[in-house]
Amino acid sequence: MSDNKFSRRQALGSVGAIVAGTFAGSKLANGQTTAMPAQTPAPRVAPRDELVNTLEFEEEAKKKLAPATYALIAGGDRAMFDRITLRPRMLSPTLDMDLSQTILGDTHFVPIIVGPVSEQKRFHPDGETATAKGSAAAKAFMILSSHSSVPIDQVAAANKNFWYQVYAADSTAKTQIADGVKAGARAIVITVGVNPGAANAKPTAAAINWSAVDTLKQGLSVPVVVKGITTPADATLALQHGAQAIIVSNYGGVLTAKDAPILDMPKLVDAVAGKAPVLVDGSFRRGTDVIKALAFGAQGVIVARPAMWGLAAYGADGVQAVVEMLQTELGRYMGMCGKSNLKMLDRTLLKVHGPMPAKTSTAPATTNN
Question: Which has the closest alpha carbon to 282: 304, 267, 260?
Fold first, then answer.
């Protein structure tokens, strides 16, 4: 039965109330009634299967969350993606399509990873457990924030393919890393260049403390990934300080107040020169966005806000749907471009409209030791 229709019992009861003069108000001494304020019904979330792209999940999440909470995961910077177009190639055989990628020794079904978001019970009662279940159902890795609202062992039980993220500036990071490794984290992600914010507060930019990275990676038996790289110089320094992979990220503009870093990918990939995998986050919403990053040389893409939209609106099923939608779109556009595997992607697939970012030096910058 639809939520916005009376049952037969309710309808008969309403008729009786109207006859008695008590429906939708209280009776006054003169027999008149006072009108009760009309209640605005909560917006109904659309059936999940009716959504056709990840951007539609944002609107559904908005229906479920308080405005202040929704603002934490709203929006994204799409301008840079719109400047890049693909060069399609039709009538090329792609029946043997393989979207897998090996990163840090693990095979990813598709290199789209659910990114770290703190305190996810703000968005759904099941929090990170639902995110883990949804990403696992989509055969995707996830990155778990050390500021999780769910114990790490519960997340690990729901998705064994997870990385664990800590902040270099967090005084408890060493203990958090030990907990993450004990729980089975496949890699440790150290976020640099930012001070973590309190609940409902944005993080703030900070100088990269490479000494902290050196300390945190000591004795680790799992790979170390440094997140928050925005320049070729810092990419080079990350490798010098033992990073086995980097994540290009400006933390939603907090680190550099720059646009989404997609157009910076070529110079960052060139600076790393194949010595380590390069991953990237920042406003990825469509399969075309993913193929652009991979063609620029990234080995993987991190997706956070869209996964949270799915979580808020539909729980674990929503996370799964968002990831699978991106996976499907990536495969579709790979086929349209005549590419059957990720190794076939290169920069000749892309056309950038307008100037590329100016080249910057790859010489090491001054560090905060």
Answer: 260
**CA of 258: how far to CAs of 8, 72, 110, 270, in Å?**
59, 19, 28, 20
Percent of the chain with pLDDT over 90: 73
The pLDDT-based confidence of 251 (bands split at 50, 70, 90) is confident
Q: What is this structure's pTM?
A: 0.85
Name the amino acid, one letter, at 92. Answer: S
Between CA 194 and CA 166 the distance in angstroms is 11
* Residue 248: C-alpha distances to residues 135, 252, 256 (Å): 22, 11, 12
Nearest to 306 by CA among 64, 131, 97: 131
- What single-letter DSSP state applies at residue 43? P
Buried b (16+ CB within 10 A) or exposed e, 249-281: bbbbbbbbeebbbbbbbbbbbebbeeebbbbbb
Q: Which helix (H) or strand (E) holds 147?
A: none
Buried b / exposed e over 23-53, threshold 16 CB at 10 Å, is eeeeeeeeeeeeeeeeeeeeeebeebeebee
Q: Which of 306, 302, 304, 331 is nearest to 321 (CA)?
A: 306
- Residue 111 CB neighbour total at 10 angstroms: 26
Average pLDDT (342-364) is 77
Pairing relationship of beta strands 245-248 and 112-114 according to DSSP bridges? unpaired
Residues ≥6 apart with Cβ < 8 Å to 211 = 368, 369
Phi-psi domain of 139 (left: phi exceeds 0; alpha: psi -120 through 50; beta: other): left
Given CA atoms 356, 361, 364, 368 in this order, what sign does their dihedral have? Answer: negative
pLDDT digits 0-9 by tens, 300-310: 999 999 999 99
- DSSP 3-state assignment of 286? coil
How far is it, in rounded angstroms, from Cα 162 to Cα 152? 10
- Token readout for 73 is 């995961």
